[in-house]
Amino acid sequence: MDGTQRLEMDTISSNFASDHLHCDVLFCRAENYVQSNDWQQAKKVFIEFVEEMEWHFTKETDVLFPSLVERNSNALGPTQMMRMEHEDMRQLMEDMQKQVDNRDADNYLGLSETLLIMLHQHNTKEENILYQMADGLLGADQREILAQASAVKKQGAVIL
Question: What is the mean pLDDT of the chain?
Answer without folding.
Answer: 91
